[in-house]
Specification:
Blueprint (H helix, E strand, L loop, with lengths): L4 H4 L21 E8 L6 E8 L4 E3 L3 H10 L4 E4 L2 H8 L5 E4 H8 L9 E2 L2 E2 L7 H21 L2 H11 L3 H9 L12 H8 L10 H7 L1 H11 L10 H6 L2 H10 L8 H6 L2 H9 L12 H10 L4 E4 L6 H16 L2 E5 L3 H13 L5 E4 L5 H13 L4 E4 L7 H8 L3 E6 L17 H15 L3 H4 L8 E5 L4 H15 L4 E4 L7 E7 L3 H15 L3 E4 L3 H13 L5 E3 L5 H12 L5 E4 L14 E4 L6 H8 L10 E7 L1 H14 L3 H14 L5 E4 L1 H8 L8 H14 L3 E5 L14 H10 L5 H16 L9 H4 L2 H8 L3 H14 L8 E4 L9 H18 L6 E4 H10 L7 H13 L3 E5 L4 E6 L3 H39 L28 E3 L1 H10 L13 H13 L4 E4 L8 E5 L13 H26 L1 H13 L2 H8 L4 H4 L6 H8 L4 H8 L5 E6 L5 H14 L8 E5 L2 H15 ...
Parallel strand pairs: 1-4, 4-5, 8-13, 8-14, 9-11, 9-12, 10-11, 12-13, 15-20, 16-18, 16-19, 17-18, 19-20, 30-34, 30-35, 31-32, 31-33, 33-34, 36-37, 38-45, 38-46, 41-43, 41-44, 42-43, 44-45
Antiparallel strand pairs: 1-2, 2-3, 6-7, 21-29, 22-29, 23-27, 23-28, 24-26, 25-26, 39-40, 47-52, 48-49, 48-51, 49-50, 51-52
């Protein structure tokens, strides 16, 4: 401001310099006036005035002011924003001068006037109107000086234009510059000669002067600066929006005749040479598209340009943008999805010497961001690059309002279209933003006034676009802005690229081929791969093999990305291995080779990526694809993982509804929504996915999104000026040096805002995020600083936190109870973290806590606490994808516990304090509502209010307002704490306690510092009962359908390229130029059209689903029904259908593995499904949750399961789900599959119902056979299967084809099933075989001559017959079909053991499917030993995963130790299955597997001639020949009949039933035989001893001896005791019950002749104390002979 320095000496001399012509004879006595007006009450609070003679006035009286002015004979009254602000409140007599309106006219050039910022006077004083009068006086003196500096012609122009405008007339009179009115005629001439070569010589100035003289004056002031980066202030554009239009008419409207200005400034060729140094635009096969598109932009048209990669797209919008900046000081906003691309463009422009491009994006730190914003505001920027999501920022909206935005450029415009290869939901907000921006800036009717044309044109750019995408983009802008886009599309293809596809069949071949191609070419090369991980692997492998290469992918950190990209661009390394993230906007002209190691996922992307080669048109470049069909499968899998399915959006909508139950608004974080939606929060891009889901909901009108940001108002400042603020901050102990500097900057900014009320936008500037953006601080710093200043009293305290309290009147306070429960659990956790660290799973930690007496512990609570402890720096936690944890304390245990106890104390106080506040308010409200019936008064403005118990409904969720500072002061003044002295408490302590109460759910808190943790504000628009529907999902669905087709289309291209080069090129051309539907019908005829809609390759589809029957396919193809209930008859392929349905759900139906749950009734079934699914879909099967009902419920309860404790675990879990006590991500499922659904009990069904209720849109697939429900004794009932068929949108399917049994067996079973009374299935089962098979019913008398007939012997004879007579057994073995199986089924375990002994005594190899009451697999000695050894190994490594070396060593040790044990095969088989079904051997998974398994799960029946089993244990198996032994009961119940039915339907070829009852007499398809022979019991029988057969306590002292024994060893029996043959020492004794049983056998003439050990097991009495050690017991077989 040096030109005014000479004026400073005579500031008080208020007479005007003598060279002003005295046209006005009046005296020039002047006074300066300023008023303080209340923001809310709009009343005068204070007035200040300063007279020409130095007298001052300071009081809030209008009358006194008038007197003060009259006394000084004041003619002129001056002030800043006087005319439209102060003068509205004061009746002023005199000529008014307003310094505000003069400032942009007289100081239009940067750095503008130091006293003015926006529309405000800069002041360091608070609420001091006299001080502001001083500033106004100083400003007026400078304005007079500046006026005198203007050329006479300029003064004349401004006078003529402005002398009749009230904002300027006073000043012009004061400086004696009023002209005659008729002089206006000559104004055009003056302007044209004064601004020659600065404006168009043919502009229609008279019209502009008549329409808007003020607008024209401001426009000319700006044009007159020779600095194109100076801008008109935002407030001027707000009050005079026509300024932009006038500048456009004067400086950017090409005249028809052509004048020197237009030829120079608006000629694109001249500017191309001037700005970029190019002589000509680029052409595409002779088409001048770049030139035409640039010209259209300069002409103000909206356009869509489709240029190939490397086609000079950037220049096409940069050139017009730079021209607009230089002619009309305009800002071009470029919206681009890629942050790295923005940076590149800004850097490239800087390299060319253009510093007027700026980017504001998420990668900037607060300081850089604030500098960027400052540059846009001050006019330094003519190009602003931002990402679409930035349009939601209030700061961006505000700085754009203050600039002349001339064009919106949208890069990667295909993102608008669901048909494009990269549809982005946040792009759909762009049109809405531009429309609302125009309306806010120019008025709602502005477009109508502009004949339906948008006021701000748009340019869209994309590199590749098929017709449908082009149509979508055009329709989009027509809809939002009513504009038609002019199309500039290049049809030229690159002639210097040579394409080639090479088919490879293995990864090894692929790599070798890649090496030889790279070595031959020896030029800059890009290798594209589809997965980020592979970029590193491949680059390292090449480098190891002597070919130097670097990786590049989107997930790398920025420094490495930049380093690798620079190394490649500068030829330090010639090979880059990259994902498609590389190359966007990267322009390296000498790339001679592009190799797609994995093919792209669409032709668009392929063409773009291959197009990175041969940017130099004189270079011949090669593009290879190394292709195998599996590449497409990888794309399909990737698409499945990344796609946002309708069910996931439904889950987010449900989460929003859960959060907004009480009121439509909620503030929360993306992570909280993800958790409430039940998403797995360990997924990497989870926040992006949540935002996309919210965008989709917003797009369909379900919600509105905003930013959750508090305000700090200038009215809250309690200091008078900056000096006082500095003094108070320096003296305060609350601020460090840095914090003090931050506080000073904030206060300064707030004081400056004091005058905002006079302008338009006080809300925006008081927002915390705006302060943070402008000052270059983080939001956390601003909030922290503001809170400290409130505590120090520099800012008035504001009740900016709301607490939503429930049940105020209830003395049993729920928050109090929750706090105590959490505190107990937290103390337990803290005390159990050892000094080094804690290695554990959530589940185990919870299990431990429950066992140690903390009954309220759940996994969900532990996760909440650990999250909090990590955020607040008590501990560090690391966790992997399977919830294994490592927790380390941050400080020593004493310090941590002290801090914890203090926090809990503060929490207790807060709950007490807030509730008592709420009660007071509640009383107040009740009294007021009683007193005033006439008028509802709402006192919440004045005082914090809670929900009133007696108040009316509309106050139901009235929040209680309070502040942190208020709480802190209350705490300090109270002295009720037992543990700690509250006087030393800091704000941070109170905030920590509040955050804790909020996180544990003790109270819902919003606002204040909590916005740091909950940054999103969501408003629910639609009713909670509404569901997000298929119609709402249409656009995303269309996009994903397209993605699937694009993968097929690119695969077809690869196959074509191998066969016919020209046909493949034609195919690509057709794809981009033909109508899409015509293209599809040309290349994918007939059934192939449906093929390309599937998410798998045709060959994979055939492999997966080609072999299924029509009925089975029906179930696979049903993607819609909410509930599919399949009644699957025996042998109908139930398991097969379920396994294929799981594959279909994962591959074809958009179900992510974590969203799928399958429940079974046995660990063996779960294992079988996992194994079969692995065979079908490979490794993906590992991630699918297939569990037993019990195991899943133990998970939900966060307990380590075992079958002994499984009693009511299912019931408990169902209750917990219904009470909302389970973490949503444990139960949020989109599909539930139930196997053997007929076996559901009341509790199981309650669990299924709870899951269905918790997941509104969940699909259920239940498969079962009501005729095979044989577990009624356990409470199972097929009624629950039937109830599922009655749910809404359910579908019932009967699967009645039997692929197992021959015809007669099926007919017999159908006949028999008629006896079962309650059935769901109505259709008879049909055998799919052409053979008859054989059914024999052999009937025996119950007794002969009062002697019971036993049927063991005839069964033995049948078996012998089947095996062939003993003599010719070997010879006949070949005639019996290879591997035919025989099974004998009995009703009881005892019968089975007797049959087994009989077979063995006749030399027949047979196996028993072991079943024994009370026998648990995990108690077997062999299993216990193995687990103990694993335990020891794990303790040393501290790894949640069992290392392979420990696993193998433990196996060898165990197998060696128990080499002679006959029970070892059970352990061997179990470990084999565990290895097959678990990719990584997690210790927690092993324990669960072992604890949940039964001994019979591991009975390997494959190598035995004959299997002996009870009917119950045979369910789910099938055998060629089945013999059943049925001792007939008097009155068979349905349960018994179903059991027989199960037995009969196990048979494939022949079925023989030996019975002594009449139940089977009427079966038509069977041969009926009557055997009248009297059979006695076998001479030798075996009795298996179970737990209840031995005296368990007897063995306690013999534990060590017993543990040295092995299964299969002989024992000696005497007097009901078992002893060791070697020592004669008794180690076991029979129970009283067993002694009685033995007595009965002895009466029949049997006696014990031998005994051998069957199992050695661990045992401990249920009521034994916890710390009592287990003992070992022997379960033996007793051999008895007659």
């Amino acid at each position: 401001m040096s030109i005014f320095s000479r004026l400073f000496g005579r500031k008080n001399n208020l007479t005007v310099s003598s060279d002003i012509k005295k046209k006005d004879a009046r005296s020039r006595n002047i006074a300066f006036v300023d008023t303080e007006v209340g923001l809310k009450d709009h009343k005068i609070h204070d007035i200040g005035a300063l007279r020409y003679d130095g007298a001052t006035f300071h009081q809030a009286s209008q009358t006194a002011l008038n007197k003060f002015l009259q006394e000084g004979k004041v003619d002129y009254i001056c002030g800043h924003n006087l005319i439209h602000h102060d003068a509205r409140y004061l009746q002023l007599n005199g000529i008014l001068i307003d310094t505000l309106y003069l400032s942009p006219l007289l100081f239009p050039k940067r750095p503008y006037h130091h006293l003015v910022k926006d529309d405000k006077l800069m002041s360091e004083q608070m609420n001091n109107p006299v001080n502001d009068c001083e500033k106004a006086k100083e400003l007026l003196m400078d304005e007079i000086a500046a006026w005198n500096q203007l050329s006479e012609r300029k003064r004349k122009i401004f006078t003529l234009l402005l002398q009749n405008e009230e904002e300027f007339r006073g000043f012009l009179m004061y400086v004696g510059a009023i002209e005659k009115d008729d002089a206006m005629i000559g104004v055009s001439e003056y302007i044209l000669s004064e601004y020659k070569n600065h404006i168009c010589a043919h502009a229609d100035i008279p019209a502009l002067a008549a329409q808007s003289p003020c607008g024209l004056a401001y426009a000319l002031a700006l044009i007159g600066t020779d600095d194109y980066q100076s801008v008109t202030p935002g407030w001027v554009l707000f009050h005079y929006p026509e300024v932009e239009h006038i500048i456009y008419m004067l400086c950017h409207t090409q005249c028809t005749d052509g004048c020197e200005y237009c030829n120079r400034m608006l000629d694109i060729h001249h500017n191309l040479q001037q700005l970029f140094g190019y002589d000509a635009f680029r052409t595409y096969d002779g088409e001048p598209l770049q030139e035409q598109a640039s010209q259209a932009a300069v002409d103000g048209k909206s356009l869509l340009a489709i240029f190939p990669t490397g086609g000079g797209k950037s220049l096409t919008f940069q050139l017009p943008a730079l021209m607009d900046g230089r002619t009309i000081h305009g800002l071009t906003v470029v919206i681009s999805p890629l942050q790295s691309l923005m940076k590149d463009q800004v850097d490239n422009l800087a390299d060319r010497g253009f510093t007027d491009a700026v980017t504001i994006n998420g990668l900037l730190d607060p300081i850089s961001r604030s500098l960027a914003i400052e540059r846009v505001q001050s006019g330094d920027a003519t190009l602003l690059y931002i990402a679409p999501e930035m349009l939601r920022s209030k700061t961006i909206e505000r700085i754009l309002m203050a600039r002349h935005v001339v064009r919106f450029v949208i890069d990667e415009a295909h993102c608008f279209s669901a048909w494009g290869q990269d549809f982005r939901v946040d792009y759909l907000y762009i049109g809405k933003f531009i429309k609302e921006y125009q309306e806010r800036k120019f008025g709602k009717d502005a477009m109508a006034r502009n004949h339906g044309q948008p006021l701000i044109p748009v340019s869209c750019f994309t590199a590749t676009a098929k017709q449908k995408v082009v149509q979508d983009i055009c329709d989009y802008f027509k809809h939002w802005l009513g504009t038609d886009l002019q199309l500039f599309a290049s049809s030229a293809s690159r002639t210097n690229l040579h394409y080639s596809v090479i088919h490879v069949d293995s990864d090894g071949n692929k790599y070798n081929l890649l090496r030889s191609l790279v070595e031959q070419a020896d030029c800059p090369t890009i290798i594209y791969v589809s997965r980020t991980k592979r970029t590193r692997e491949l680059a390292q492998k090449l480098t190891r093999d002597g070919i130097s290469a670097l990786p590049y992918n989107g997930k790398m950190d920025a420094d490495e990305k930049i380093h690798n990209q620079d190394a490649f661009m500068s030829d330090k390394v010639r090979i880059i291995v990259a994902t498609s993230a590389f190359g966007m906007g990267v322009d390296k002209s000498d790339v001679g080779l592009v190799i797609h190691y994995d093919i792209s996922d669409s032709l668009e992307n392929y063409v773009q990526e291959a197009g990175r080669a041969g940017r130099d048109p004189h270079l011949d470049a090669k593009c290879y694809v190394l292709y195998s069909d599996e590449d497409l499968d990888k794309h399909f899998i990737l698409l499945n993982q990344t796609k946002l399915s309708i069910s996931e959006i439904q889950q987010v909508w449900k989460a929003v509804k859960d959060f907004t139950k009480q009121r439509p608004h909620v503030s929360c974080s993306a992570l909280e929504i993800a958790r409430q939606a039940g998403w797995d929060d360990s997924v990497s891009d989870i926040e992006t996915r949540v935002r996309t889901a919210l965008s989709a909901l917003e797009q369909s009108g379900y919600i509105e999104r905003g930013n959750n940001i508090p305000h700090v108002y200038a009215t809250g400042i309690t200091v008078k000026n900056m000096d006082e603020a500095r003094l108070r901050l320096t003296e305060s102990p609350l601020f460090s040096e840095d914090e003090m500097q931050n506080a000073i900057r904030i206060i300064k900014s707030l004081i400056t805002q004091k005058h905002i009320a006079k302008a338009q936008d006080s809300e925006a500037e008081s927002r915390i995020d705006y302060l943070a953006d402008i000052l270059g601080l983080s939001k956390r710093d601003v909030i922290s600083s503001v809170d400290r200043m409130r505590q120090e009293g520099i800012l008035a305290d504001t009740r900016d936190i709301s607490a939503y309290l429930q049940d105020i009147s209830d003395k049993q306070r729920k928050p109090q109870q929750m706090l105590e429960n959490f505190a107990k659990l937290e103390r337990y956790i803290l005390e159990h973290i050892p000094d080094e660290s804690l290695h554990i799973t959530y589940k185990q930690l919870n299990d431990n806590a429950v066992h140690d007496g903390i009954n309220t512990s759940t996994e969900k609570k532990i996760r909440t606490l650990l999250y909090f402890l990590a955020v607040k720096g008590y501990a560090h936690k690391k966790e992997d994808g399977v919830r294994n944890l490592i927790v380390t304390r941050d400080k020593d245990i004493e310090t941590i516990i002290k801090r914890f106890e203090r926090r809990i104390e503060v929490c207790r106080f807060i709950i007490e304090r807030l509730y008592s506040l709420a009660e007071e308010n509640s009383k107040t409200i009740t009294e007021e509502s009683n007193n005033s019936s006439s008028e509802e008064k709402n006192p919440s403005e004045e005082k914090g209010l809670g929900k009133a118990s007696g108040a009316t409904d509309n106050r139901k969720e009235k929040p209680l307002q309070f502040s942190v500072v208020e709480l802190l002061n209350d705490l300090k003044s109270s002295n009720q704490s037992l543990f700690s002295d509250f006087s030393s408490l800091q704000l941070e302590d109170v905030e920590e306690a509040l955050l804790y109460l909020s996180k544990i759910g003790a109270m819902k808190l919003e606002g204040g510092f909590l916005v740091l943790y909950n940054a999103m504000a969501i408003k629910r628009i639609k009713e909670p009962r509404l569901h997000y529907k298929q119609e709402d999902y249409r656009m995303l669905n269309e996009f994903y359908k397209q993605k699937i087709q694009q993968i097929h289309i690119v695969g077809e291209y690869a196959n074509l390229m191998v066969r016919d080069y020209d046909a493949a090129l034609q195919y690509v051309q057709d794809y981009f130029q033909m109508d899409y539907h015509c293209f599809i019908s040309k290349y994918f005829k007939g059934s192939r059209e449906t093929e390309i809609e599937r998410n798998v390759t045709p060959s994979k589809y055939k492999q997966l689903f080609g072999m299924l029957s029509k009925r089975q396919k029906e179930i696979i193809d049903d993607h819609e029904s909410r509930c599919i209930v399949v009644a699957a008859g025996p042998g109908s392929g139930k398991t097969r259908v379920l396994v294929h349905k799981l594959a279909s759900l994962l591959l074809l139906e958009d179900v992510k593995h974590e969203q799928l749950l399958m429940l079974t009734f046995s660990r063996a079934a779960a294992t079988e499904f996992k194994q079969r699914l692995m065979q079908l879909i490979g490794n993906a099967a590992h991630f699918v949750e297939i569990k037993t009902f019990h195991s899943y419920c133990f998970d939900l309860l966060g307990r380590v399961g075992n079958l002994d404790e499984a009693g009511d675990v299912v019931k408990q879990a169902a209750e917990m789900i219904n009470n909302g006590e389970v973490e949503p991500n444990r139960i949020s499922k989109t599909v539930l599959v139930i196997d053997e659904a007929q076996d559901m009990s009341k509790d199981d069904y309650a669990l299924v119902s709870a899951l269905m209720k918790a997941n509104e849109e969940m699909r259920v697939i239940a498969v079962g056979d009501d005729d095979q429900n044989i577990y009624e004794f356990r409470g199972s009932n097929s009624r629950y299967l039937y109830e599922l068929t009655q749910t809404e949108h359910s579908r019932f399917i009967e699967m009645t084809e039997n692929y197992r049994s021959l015809r007669h067996i099926v007919d017999t079973a159908n006949d028999f099933a008629h006896n079962i009374r309650q059935r769901i299935k109505s259709t008879p089962i049909i055998s799919m075989s052409q053979e008859d098979g054989e059914v024999r019913i052999v009937k025996h008398p119950y007794e002969i001559q009062e002697k019971k007939v036993y049927m063991y012997q005839p069964i033995l004879e049948d078996v012998t017959r089947l095996l062939g007579s003993n003599a010719s057994k070997e010879a006949d073995a070949s005639s019996r079909k290879k591997n035919e199986t025989i099974s004998i089924l009995t009703q009881t375990n005892e019968e089975a053991v007797i049959v087994l002994a009989l077979l063995h005594s006749h030399g027949i190899k047979a196996k028993l499917v072991q079943s024994m009451d009370g026998l648990r697999f995990w108690n077997l000695a062999e299993v216990r030993y193995f687990l103990k050894k694993i335990d020891q190994g794990i303790k040393e490594t501290k790894s949640p995963i069992i290392p392979d070396d420990i696993w193998e060593t433990t196996k060898q040790q165990t197998f060696q130790k128990y080499a002679t044990s006959q029970a070892l095969p059970y352990l061997r088989r179990s470990l084999q299955i565990f290895e097959q079904t678990n990719r990584a051997k997690y210790y927690s998974d092993l324990r669960e597997f072992v604890f949940e398994s039964s001994v019979e799960d591991f009975c390997d029946i494959s190598k035995s001639d004959i299997v002996v089993s009870t009917i119950h244990k045979a369910k789910g198996h099938e055998f060629d020949h089945v013999l059943i032994l049925i001792t007939h009961p008097e009155h068979p119940t349905d349960d018994i009949l179903r059991r027989y039915y199960v037995g009969m339907t196990r048979a494939k070829r022949t079925l023989t039933i030996h019975t002594n009852g009449n139940l089977f007499d009427s079966l038509k398809s069977a041969q009926h035989l009557y055997d009248v022979q009297a059979y006695d019991e076998p001479n030798e029988i075996v009795l298996q001893l179970s737990h209840k057969d031995v005296n368990l306590g007897f063995s306690k002292p013999h534990k060590d001896t017993i543990l040295c024994l092995r299964s299969g060893m002989p024992l000696t029996y005497h007097d009901h005791c078992l002893c060791l043959p070697s020592t004669g020492r008794d180690i076991a004794q029979l129970s009283i019950k067993m002694k009685e049983k033995l007595g009965k056998w002895e009466l029949k003439g049997y006696k014990v002749t031998a005994a051998r050990i069957r199992f050695i097991v661990a045992w401990k009495s249920k009521d034994a104390p916890r710390d009592e050690k287990e003992s070992a017991i022997v379960l033996a077989d007793l051999v008895m002979k007659k």
